């Protein structure tokens, strides 16, 4: 099956985190296109700075669904929020950005060399 890559628009800071600060995971609200049917290990991804900026290409590694507490218990916070001072700060940043919802999804992006 020839599947379209998952398009992931990012704010400039998050894009730079992936490009040069060791960010490996993206967290989104588990709804619309960010669901179990779309986010599968091995599916190609396109990370974009905004909708029309520079691009990074890769594929999805692991995928974790659950609360922010579950996600940050299973994944080192530095791989999600490399500029955060600690896990609590990383959780707070994500909660403020995404808002409270029943379920979140974190997906690992393995960048092409």
Helix content: 10-25%
N→C terminal distance: 24 Å
Q: Could you spell the SSE succession in H and E letters? A: EHEEEHHE
| Largest sheet: number of strands, sense, barrel closure | 5 strands, mixed
| Structural class determined from secondary elements | alpha+beta
Number of strands: 5
Silhouette: globular
Q: Over the alpha carbons, how many angstroms does the gyration radius reach? A: 13 Å
Mean pLDDT: 96
The fraction of residues assigned to DSSP E strands is 25-35%
Number of helices in the DSSP assignment: 3
Q: In order across it, which strands form the biggest sheet?
A: 1-3-4-5-2
Low-confidence stretches: none
Task: Give a written overview of the molecule.
It is a single chain. With 113 residues, this protein is of the alpha+beta class. The chain is 25% helix and 32% strand. The protein has a 5-stranded mixed beta sheet. A hairpin with a 5-residue loop joins β3 (44-49) and β4. 27% of the residues are buried. The mean pLDDT is 96.
Write a compact overview of the structure shown.
The chain has 113 residues and is α+β, with helices and mostly antiparallel strands. The chain has 3 helices and 5 strands. The protein has a 5-stranded mixed sheet with strand order 1-3-4-5-2.
């Amino acid at each position: 099956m020839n599947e379209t890559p998952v398009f992931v628009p990012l704010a400039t800071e998050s894009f730079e985190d992936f490009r040069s600060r060791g960010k490996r995971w993206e967290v989104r609200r588990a709804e619309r296109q960010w669901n179990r049917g779309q986010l599968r290990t091995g599916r190609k991804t396109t990370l974009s700075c905004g909708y029309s900026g520079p691009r990074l290409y890769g594929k999805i590694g692991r995928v974790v669904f659950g609360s922010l507490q579950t996600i940050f218990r299973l994944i080192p916070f530095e791989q999600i929020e490399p500029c955060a001072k600690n896990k609590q700060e990383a959780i707070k940043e994500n909660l403020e950005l995404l808002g409270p919802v029943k379920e979140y999804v974190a997906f690992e992006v393995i960048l092409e060399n």
